[in-house]
Design brief:
Elements (H helix, E strand, L loop, with lengths): L15 H32 L6 H19 L8
Helix pairs in contact: 1-2
Length: 80
């Protein structure tokens, strides 16, 4: 017995929405992780290190965010 025919044809579906969703989730994960790391660094230096304080934590968190933004930003794709 032959299988039922369907309208699906492999490789012909528009996947722009799936790509946009994937890019959104990856961006939220990337930037959320960076900001979470900066907040944790601030809190650890502020409350857990006796020699450091609030100002040291803030400066360190700002440096982490600046470096993370520099290294994690989207690079322009090269034309082939």
């Amino acid at each position: 017995m032959a299988g039922a025919s369907s309208d699906y044809h492999r490789g012909e579906m528009d996947i722009a929405e799936q790509q946009a969703t994937f890019n959104l989730v990856m961006g939220m994960t990337k930037w959320g992780s960076l900001y979470l790391a900066a907040i944790l660094l601030l809190l650890v230096l502020w409350f857990c290190v006796p020699a450091a304080g609030f100002l040291t934590g803030v400066v360190s968190a700002v440096v982490v965010v600046a470096l993370g933004t520099f290294f994690l930003r989207d690079k322009p794709s090269e034309a082939h």
